[in-house]
Design a protein that fits this description.
With about 280 residues, this protein is an alpha+beta fold. The structure holds S-adenosylmethionine.
Length: about 280
């Protein structure tokens, strides 16, 4: 359905439900119609692990926030940023408000484009560099730690042209909303447990923090992105990891057990096997 003369964007209602709109690029006559399936196909193809997708509960907070300050009734909430999207080639209408998480690397360019073209926007932006470009809009700082769909937690700010001549808004209520969401998500988060044959950076860190040294040789382990059991759930090893030989897995398990013992009783003394004892063990069946 989509070709190089067309582009997509998503529209969202006040309850956060979205619909995809395919639009012919500006050069051609605009032709709006909905086609969710082809949007999803496209999304699957172009999705990269680098992209930080926004969970729905985060979007809900933002849409409600904007709606409180700038009533969105009779407005079309537009989300033009997704893989293969082309925000510059959308025929923006007067009643549209862009509320979205754009690629941070081109945030200044996007704001300038929207300001130049009179498009209303409320966009996510990086917190630490929120003031780095002198753009004629409002910076909304809520010290919001947002955990995106890929698991990365990024302190996020917002930038908008919906607030007239206000240059900076420091919003403590918005901060509280994101803080509560983080706390709710933390308590609801399933804990992943991996078998001993899977080595993650957290497993190593857990041991090191308890004073347990580990060492694995290159030939014992193989770089690994995700377990087969995870694939059908669209999950992977966060930050990747390694799959280990039986011997390395046993060593990892022993180190984890030793670390767990340290955690229970900080006064634990760990007796290590000597080289001589290791030789005895080797001679045993
Ligand atoms: C940070 S991600 C957020 C995706 C989505 N808006 C969300 O909130 O989950 C930004 C997306 O913008 C897309 N993107 C990059 N350049 C774009 C452009 N010129 N027009 C529209 N989207 C673009 C990227 O591929 C990426 O998927």
């Amino acid at each position: 359905m989509e070709n190089k003369n067309s582009s997509f964007y998503k529209i969202v209602d006040l309850f956060g439900n979205d619909q995809t709109v395919i639009i012919e690029k500006k050069k051609n006559k605009p032709n709006l119609f909905s086609d969710y399936e082809s949007f999803l196909d496209k999304f699957e193809i172009k999705k990269t692990t680098d992209d930080c997708y926004t969970p729905k509960d985060v979007m809900d907070i933002i849409i409600n926030y904007v709606n409180d300050k700038y009533p969105l009734k009779n407005k079309k909430i537009v989300r033009p940023f997704f893989p293969g999207g082309d925000y510059e080639n959308i025929e923006y209408e007067d009643n549209m408000v862009v509320i979205d998480n754009p690629p941070f690397s081109i945030i200044s360019k996007i704001c300038k484009f929207y300001l130049k073209n009179g498009v209303k926007f409320f966009l996510f932006c990086p917190h630490l560099t929120a003031f780095s470009s002198d753009i004629d809009c409002t910076h909304i700082i809520a010290s919001a730690d947002i955990t995106y769909e890929n698991g990365a937690t990024i302190k996020t700010a917002f930038v908008s042209n919906l607030f007239g001549d206000i240059k900076i808004i420091g919003d403590a209520d918005l901060y509280q909303k994101f803080k509560s969401l983080q706390e709710r998500n933390k308590t609801n988060l399933p804990k992943y447990e991996y078998p001993n044959h899977i080595i993650t950076v957290s497993k190593i860190a857990y041991c090191v923090e308890k004073g347990i040294n580990l060492k694995f040789h290159k030939k014992e382990i193989k770089h690994y992105r995700g377990m087969d059991a995870q694939k059908k759930h669209g999950k992977a090893l966060f930050g990747c990891g390694f799959i280990a030989s039986d011997k390395a897995a046993a060593a990892a398990a022993a180190a984890a057990a030793a670390a767990a013992a340290v955690q229970k009783n900080e006064n634990v003394i760990i007796w290590e096997l000597s080289q001589r004892e290791k030789e005895i063990i080797k001679s045993l069946e």
